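WARN no homologs supplied; continuing
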Amino acid sequence: MFRRLTVALASFALAGCVSVREETTEIAAAPTAQALAMPEITIFHLEGRRSERIVWLMEELGLPYTLEFKRGDLAGSMAAIRAINPGMPVAPTVKIGDQVLVESGAIIETIVNRYAPGKLTPPIASADYADNLKWMHYAEGSLASRVIADYRVWQIRPPTARSPLVDSEAVVQYAEDYLGKHPWFGGAEFSTSDIMMFFPLNFATALNIVDVNQFPNVAAWRKKIEARPAYQRMLAKARPDGMIGNLPALPQHAPPGPR
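OK structure emitted
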């Protein structure tokens, strides 16, 4: 709702006066941007790694893509990534036309905004839009960075108590609390933030960095994710032999911190 103030000036014999008349005018919803013509998209992939996000996205959108990896050979797949992107050989590396991109969130937003505007994204005027964007960035900026750091440290010296500051349990608990009030990270509907959040939450629970039983909302959300046809198609194409080169789970994790 756009609020427009109209100021009317009138002169009176006894005193000057300014009267303010408030009008309300509905703003028409902005039309959905037209999709750009999509160039060839090639996803350079490592099985079981973040590049699955982009394969999953394309399956959700029903858009064409080429998937490049050496089945069962992580070193061979990495060599192909290094050949196309020697300065930053990471997965995902995605080639869109002649442009080579890294960073899952940036790749997802580029593909959706250019070639599937309005899809897998809440309306921009809704509260869900801001939440979706928050979780898109939270997935790597707060969640993945914390749980991966804790995993590496705990492999060296398992903790006996949780940090009184923000640690892996706290960043997962924040997601757990949100899912207690919303069905998806994008709010009412499945969205791009769910794609982003799956990897670090799966990493945290599957590798015993946090106790999976402590987060029932995350577990229920994960079951919904795994039942999605597009997710199943992604697994069949991007992880045909199941997980390979998986990291070992921690033999123990610190007890829950104070609530």
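Helices lie at 52-61, 74-84, 104-115, 127-156, 168-179, 192-206, 216-226, 229-238.
OK
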